[in-house]
Amino acid sequence: VFAGIAGLIAVCLPGAAQAVCDPGELTIKFSHVVAEKGHPKGEMAAALAARINTEMNGSACMEVYPSSELYDDDAVMEALLLGEVQIAAPSISKLEDYTLKYRLFDLPFLFSDMQAVNVFIESEIGNSLLNEMSDYGFVGIGYMLNGLKQFSANKVLEIPKDAEGLAFRVQTSDVAVSMIETLNARPVKLPFKDVFYSLETGLVDGQENTWSNIYTQRLFTVQDGVLETNHQLLIYLAVVSQEWLEGLDPAIRATFLKIFKEVSGAYNARAMEINAESRSKIIRFGGVVRGLTPVQRKEWVSAMAPVWAKYQDQIGLDVIEAAVNSNA
Ligand code: LMR
Which ipTM score applies to this complex? Predict the structure, then answer.
């Protein structure tokens, strides 16, 4: 009996984020896959919950479920439609079942820095892309930034040739698959929660992710080193179900959206800093970080250039041009 109760408690109380909602309050569950602390998305979700739980106390409350505790990024989309959770923020790269337009954000070396990303998401085209999934009953309520990605492997990486023959974990994104294939390497789509284990056991040799993901998942501890390529963006779409959003009391909806906008704006502005801190911590904890010379960088850019040609028709040249023009 005791074992049974203990098991039940463990299942019902997976984290400290629960049990804040009072009877009668609208419960808003936010499910995500990353660490709660030291991560742009994890910290943004926690800050959002803190504000909602203070400012909307009595009418609404938010529970955050981090670290794939409830759902991975594929399952969470269905959970939104079923009303099991109310908000999710998957990497845009993983939304290709719903629209091919978001492949834009995966084009390698599209944005030269996060400043350019900010310019683009604030633009008219950037803003209109939020609504690409309405046919499926989803509303994008805003973008949440992480940062640019870096490569790591269990051997020294400096030039594209070094990646040949290696297996790299990628997100569930065909653009990422193509990108790894241009390196004559082998892409393996895996959920985020399996990355550390897959690197540790040698199921894959390498991976690509932002500093904050590489640090908070301790990926650098099972890799030879990290190569600072900044080759691709990791950006999230904060997504809710249209039915849920439209069904809200108008005053509650307006307050929720206002708080969301303020908190995501503040954390988008902090995302670069959080990633820079993660980079420093990786070095402090003994991780190896290698930079690229301008010549090496050119080699990576040209190795991955064929990916653009493959996807440009699906994305639309006008959209690509707008994104390119966001670079200073
Ligand atoms: C990944 O799967 O690598 C990322 O999308 C995880 C995340 O949410 O940052």
Answer: 0.99
